[in-house]
Amino acid sequence: MESAAATVGFRRRDGGVVEDHPWTDTPVGLLEQAAPWRTFRWYKGQQHYSGTYWSATTQDHVIYESRLELARLLFADFDPAVRSIAAQPFLLKTVVDGQARKHIPDYFLMTDDGPVVVDVKPRRRLCEPVVAFTFEWTREAVESRGWRYEVWSEPPEAELENVRFLAGYRRAWLFAPEVLEELRCADLDGVPLGQAVRRLDGRPEPGVRAAIHHLLWTHDLHTNLTEPLCPSAVLRRTA
């Protein structure tokens, strides 16, 4: 596969548009803060499940265009290594084998290990020639900058359900700081979730349980999320 130097277009938060900027010379910060290149609208009978998700990582809403994209967004928001999330971040263009090509990745993640460009696609579609070809030249362009490129498909069902459940407890301001601090100081390492909710004397169990779920979201505590979360799930302190 022979490809020419890629260019990139992106939208600034102030409404300005930059087009055909040299890909390798585009500052990371501009892509990290980019507004969605492609937006969407809702209409009766539409085939895609689109929407917005309030991200605890960005403290702002992030768009998605399918349930699978929402799933990847949940995992990114839950990942403590992810520092920022941009949806539909840029339009990447190049010439491959003499023909103009263009592609808009689904997400741009800034992580502790550097930028990650993410495309989300159902596993059943990965073998389609057009999809495989697009992802091939996109990977080449992304990796030419020393960045990581990821094609993400359906995650394990139990893990997705657990992350989706814990996302309901992601808003820190909903929890009393004193309860969170008591739980952080309590000896909960090795304690099943069902017993941990009774470890704070005088605190109502529903509120304590919700606070524990928040600490699982923030990774102050962790447990095995590859199996359905239940009262017997053993809590561990994050090292």
Describe the model:
- The chain is α+β, with helices and mostly antiparallel strands and 239 residues long.
- The strands form four sheets. The chain has a four-stranded antiparallel sheet, covered by helices on one side. Strands 5-8-9-10 form a four-stranded mixed sheet, sandwiched between helices. Strands 3-4 form a two-stranded antiparallel ribbon.
- It is 29% helix and 25% strand.
If helices are DSSP runs of H or I spanning 4 or more residues, what is the number of helices? 7
Mean pLDDT comes to: 93
**Element-by-element helix/strand order:** EEHEEHEEEEEHEHHHHEE
The largest sheet, given as strand count, sense and whether it forms a barrel, is:
4 strands, antiparallel
Question: Reading side by side through the largest sheet, how are the strands ordered?
Answer: 2-1-6-7
What is the overall shape? elongated
Structural class comes to alpha+beta
Radius of gyration: 21 Å
State the helical fraction. Answer: 25-40%
Number of strands: 12
Low-pLDDT stretches: none
- Distance, first to last CA: 46 Å
Proportion in β-strands: 15-25%
